[in-house]
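Per reviewer request, we include the raw input and output of the structure prediction for the construct analysed in the revised manuscript.
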Amino acid sequence: MKHSILIGIAATAFAFGAQAQKSTADGIAEYRKMLEDGNPAELYEAKGENLWKTARGPKNATLEQCDLGKGPGVVKGTFVELPRYFADTKRVQDLESRLVTCMATLQGFDAAEIEKTSFGRGEQANVTALATWVASQSRGLRFNLPQGHPEERRSYELGKRAFFYRAGPYDFACATCHGTADKRIRLQDLPDLTGNPGDGIGFAAWPAYRVSNGQMWSMQLRLNDCFRQQRFPYPLFGSEVTIALSTYMGVNAKGAESIAPAIKR
């Protein structure tokens, strides 16, 4: 009897030790895996697909002829090649700003009105849903942002400078949190985005559903919130600096697999 008790105590101690050795990162990874089965992003995907195919706006037209970089109406594979230069607007655009261009030109919406609307409201909410659906159509594909046009290369260099630029009351830069490996804030791992962080990490995971606040976040909103945490002035929607930061991170993520839309804490 005593021998059995001792064996039981030893087994329990061993199991406890093994559990203690499990890293916090492993625990968070398991938590996210459990959530993936019911990712609410799927609801935004469905809404976005419906918005893409439904005639709307002053011109009562669909977005099915929107050119996201691979020709009118082509969606698959576009997300993993954005931001990129567009000849019609003569500028580098990310997914959200390009969608607003299509909503204005094809459907007759007021682009300036959409851009100044708060995230999660009105047509801005529709832009997020559209971006979620478009991103889902490239899930599993690998990032390969073009850098052939001079403006694309300029955007990358501007994004790089912005990433390392330190300012504000806390003297923060993007690189403060995401410039070296093995950093964490509270329970959140902070990937090094100055190089290729790997599949489904960093740029390759957004848009994403935020469990903590029950919201769908696009990359534009993710970057704007970073500016808020740095105590920088809040960027305008589609601003050159946010698109440049996306270009920098996207180019650095070359070859990484997209898991967007993902789910975050």
